[in-house]
């Protein structure tokens, strides 16, 4: 498509400036239509909830999910993890960089591991970037989502010193199907 546009512009080099301007406007409209067509042919973004269900997400990125890494000591963390997931996503949405949108459509996966104290605060020094997306802006947005989130206190029946979790943030990538 771009090659065709360049050839069309070369043909009009001998025309006056007003005609060249018209060609340039038409060329930019065609490029815009091409980007719009690409945007509408991509699959809708998905979000994997802690329960393993797939839900549609408003933006053009998706969250990969939440995983508990430490011993739960028999406590049911499903409701807590659902709240953690929602709160993190709410903090993440405004931080998502424009480069994930058309025409750039940056993509990647970010994995961050951290520990949550019984009062809901993230333990100082516990955040570890386990997987980078290849785009610093995407990594910063995922990191910022955790730093900016006020997590609720851990369930009272949990008597451990902390809960260690891993969050996976997906930008323009499909979640891997979960076997259940």
Give an overview of the whole structure:
With 180 residues, the chain is of the alpha+beta class. The protein has 2 domains: 2-41; 46-171, Fusion Protein Consisting Of Minor Coat Protein, Glycine Rich Linker, Tola, And A His Tag, Chain: A, Domain 2, CATH 3.30.1150. 34% of the residues lie in helices and 19% in strands. The protein contains 4 helices and 6 strands, in the order ααβββαββαβ. It has helices spanning 2-11, 17-41, 78-92, 136-147, and strands at residues 46-48, 54-56, 62-68, 108-116, 128-131, 163-171. The strands form 2 sheets. Strands 3-6-4-5 form a 4-stranded antiparallel beta sheet, with helices on one face. It has a two-stranded antiparallel ribbon with strand order 1-2. It is elongated and about 50 Å long. Mean pLDDT is 72; it is low at 1-63.
**What would you say the CATH architecture of the largest domain is?**
2-Layer Sandwich
Binned, the helix content reads 25-40%
The neighbouring-strand order within the major sheet is 3-6-4-5
Secondary-structure element pattern, one letter each: HHEEEHEEHE
Our Rg estimate from Cα atoms comes to 22 Å
Beta-strand residue fraction: 15-25%
The number of helical segments is 4
End-to-end separation in angstroms reads 44 Å
Quickly give the structural class: alpha+beta
Structural domains: how many: 2
The rough form would be described as elongated
Largest sheet: 4 strands, antiparallel
Mean pLDDT: 72
CATH topology of the largest domain: Fusion Protein Consisting Of Minor Coat Protein, Glycine Rich Linker, Tola, And A His Tag, Chain: A, Domain 2
Low-confidence blocks of residues: 1-63
CATH class of the largest domain: Alpha Beta
Secondary structure tally: strands: 6
